Amino acid sequence: MTQADLQKAFYETLRIRRVEERIAGLYSRQEMRCPVHLSIGQEAVPVGISAHLNPTDYVMGGHRSHAHYLAQGGNLKAMMAELHGKRTGCTAGKGGSMHLIDLEAGFLGATPIVASVIPIATGAALSIQMRKTRQVAVVYFGDGSIEEGIFHESLNFAALKQLPIVYVCENNGYSVYSPMEVRQPVDRKIHELARGYGIQAYGADGNDMQAINHYAEEAITRAREGQGPTLLEFETYRFLEHCGPNCDDSLGYRPDGELESKIPKGPLVHLEKTLRDKNLINDDQVAAFEEEIKVEIDEAVQFAWESPAADPETVFDHIYAPVTP
Amino acid sequence: MTRIITYHQALLEAVELSMHQDPSVYIMGLGVPDPKGIFGSTANLQETFGSERVMDMPCAENGMTGVAIGSALTGMRPIMTHQRVDFAFMAIEEIVNQAANWHYMFGGKTQVPLVIRMIIGRGWGQGPQHSQNMQAWFSHIPGLKVIVPATPYDAKGLLRAAIQDNGPVLSLEHRWLYNLKGPCPEEDFSVELGKARVIREGHDVTLVASGYMTVEACRASDRLKEMGIHAEVVDMRSAKPIDMATVTQSVEKTGKLIAVDHAWKTGGFAGEIVASVCETHYEALTCAPKRVTLPDCPTPTAPSLSEHYYPQETDIAAAVATMVGKPKLAIQLKGMKPTGHLDIPDMSFTGPF
After folding, report:
1. pLDDT (0 to 100) of residue B92
2. Counting CB atoms within 10 angstroms of each CB, which of A76, A149, A186, B76 has the fewest?
3. Full-model pTM
4. How far is CA A300 from CA A78, A103, A108, B73, B347, in A?
5. Cα–Cα distance measured from residue B269 to residue B11, given in angstroms and rounded to the nearest whole number
6. How many pairs of residues across A and B have Cβ atoms under 8 Å apart?
């Protein structure tokens, strides 16, 4: 990664972190009346991936998609307004946090049914292949998703057709409160499983931006050149609860000390250290980034607060698609 | 000079016309390009349009429905086929959670122009998992449209309209209609979704039917006409959007309603018809409405077990006779030999699927 790449990556990662923290901070006002699954601790992966994507590509995600959306260039004001149920939100109040969309940025949609979006993104990749464009489809999902049948059906089909898709598994070790060991054989790695389908697959540390960048570039280039699908498994960690703004370590489902040990190894700390070690950033620059980000978030929150509520007259709109004239 | 073709030929023509006219239309399903061509409805499509647009697919109904949805969101217009409705159940999640909702939950920003064709099996020992009809389930779901063509004309016109529709449309096609012959123009035309049609006129009783039961209801109406009873048959043609206006217009004329359903009784489509008419046109009714449906029971397999499973045209006619106050005629009708057969659609059918 170039110096500029690294600085940009740091900015983007920091921005997502601060957005998520602001949402967590405001949540108790009870004005965001929808479930929020925050990306705190998992921000680096989508930043590294979107750096190699265009707004004309197709990115899709699941319930925990704020970072996927923002990294791809999804509009912050529209997202904030959507969480607040306002008519200026990305779906004008129809979808909320779990159904973000920004077609101009290339975020095709997110849906929370675990793994359901995986074959849909696979279909977007099929469409790319049929239309013979150089677009790429990227789909994000967690470790729980690979337990669903449609994950396997999707990989089989992607391998069969050599589709232009990158499957990104953010393995944070938990499916709500259930650890890996009650769901999958502990000595089997997700990216090794994926290779069994006849596709390229790699595993890496989701806190290491340079590793993310390396595999992202390779996988996205492969897809764009029509050379087939890749699965990337990134080890990450969710700092907060599955759904909501709080830390839930007191529930005791994580081993003692695990959360404490993960935080200093998190993506933001890792990236800042990388930049400082290379003298690419200093206190003043960090402060400047923080200020710029704070201003942007303040404006987005203000926009959300001032926007009118979603229009009750539109409740029955869009049940059916309009007829082509 | 009216051209007579089979129902499966009509379905094929709708797909061919659509694929010629619009390069984004493609069709996929288990066995789509195989020698049987989904009972003739996809015959030779691959030879005409190539294997990129006419695809066999892995045995992965749920995943491939997701794939179809994803392709529909991004510029393509997929048609999926299932040789039985029962096989499509693997894909209920993608159909109901995703296809039906996507346009709404994303504020109208994306569309899912997807058609899923499914076949309702019957006879020759199809049994519980090769014969189910989920018209009631699918018509219940907001965001889905459901067509139930009963004639070759409607098969071509409705399927054409379904392919042109910009949202998800399910086509429920009864296996016993596939060899049915009827008039159908050669040119391109479509039939508006969500519009029923009066297929037999009468003033004594309104029979509301769809799919294969439309055929049986018409046979009943024809038989009764010779006996001086005039039963009007409303062919729903679409289960969703549901055209109650045509139904209630008929009930206002006859005052008597029998809803005939090729599916189970409880929670069924016939119940929807009856409830809706009672809500809005109660005063028009001169007696309680009735439903003629399959019993609340899985489909038995052996011929001796399935003998009384499916209501036939004589049963429908008997219900009409009872309703118009002719119980002796009703008993007579029940004892008559029906026009149709018990476990085959017609004498040309020798099994197995």
Report:
1. 97
2. A186
3. 0.96
4. 8, 19, 22, 29, 71
5. 24
6. 151
* Inter-chain residue contact B62 with A91, CB threshold 8 Å: no
Are B93 and A123 in contact (CB < 8 Å)? no
Return d(Cα B34, Cα B27) in angstroms, integer: 13
Interface touch B97/A113, C-beta < 8 Å? yes
Residues B128-146, mean pLDDT to the nearest whole number: 96
CA distance B344 to B84: 17
What are B220's two structure tokens? 């009943």
Give how far A107 is from chain B: nearest CA, Å: 12
Q: What is the pLDDT of residues A221-237, one digit of tens each?
A: 999 999 999 999 999 99
> With bands split at pLDDT 50, 70 and 90, how would you rate the model's confidence at B343?
confident
Beta carbons of B71 and A116 less than 8 Å apart = no
What's residue B1's pLDDT? 59
CB burial string B231-256: b at 16+ within 10 A, e below: bbbbbbbbbbebbbebbbbbbebbbb
The pLDDT assigned to B351 comes to 67
- Residues B192-227, buried b or exposed e (16+ Cβ, 10 A)? ebbebbbbbebebbbbbbbbbbbbbbbbbbebbeee
pLDDT per residue over B229-260, tens digit each? 999 999 999 999 999 999 999 999 999 999 99
Name the minimum distance, in Å, from the CA of A240 to any CA of chain B.
Answer: 27
Structure-token match 């016939």, residue found = B270
Q: Which residue of A has its CA nearest to B113?
A: A321
Residue with tokens 């030779």: B44
* Catalytic-labelled residue, pool B13, B61, B173, B232: B61
pLDDT in tens, B69-128: 999 999 999 999 999 999 999 999 999 999 999 999 999 999 999 999 999 999 889 999
Contact between B99 and A149 (Cβ < 8 Å): no
Separation of alpha carbons B248 and B280, rounded Å? 8
d(C-alpha B339, C-alpha B331), whole Å: 17
Distances (CA, A) of B101 to A106, B17, B110, B112, B141: 20, 28, 11, 9, 9
Pairing state between β B4-6 and B181-183: antiparallel
What is the rounded distance in angstroms from the CA atom of residue B223 to the CA atom of residue A177? 66
* Residue A23 to chain B, least CA–CA distance (Å): 21
Contacts of A58 in chain B (CB under 8 A): 74
Mean pLDDT throughout B143-167?
98
Contact B66 A123 (CB under 8 A): yes
The pLDDT value recorded for residue B345 is 78
Q: Respond yes or no: is residue B130 known to be catalytic.
A: yes
**How many whole angstroms from its chain centre is CA A104?**
17
Note if B61 is an active site residue: yes
Give the span between the Cα atoms of B210 and A67, in whole angstroms: 49
pLDDT for res B340: 78
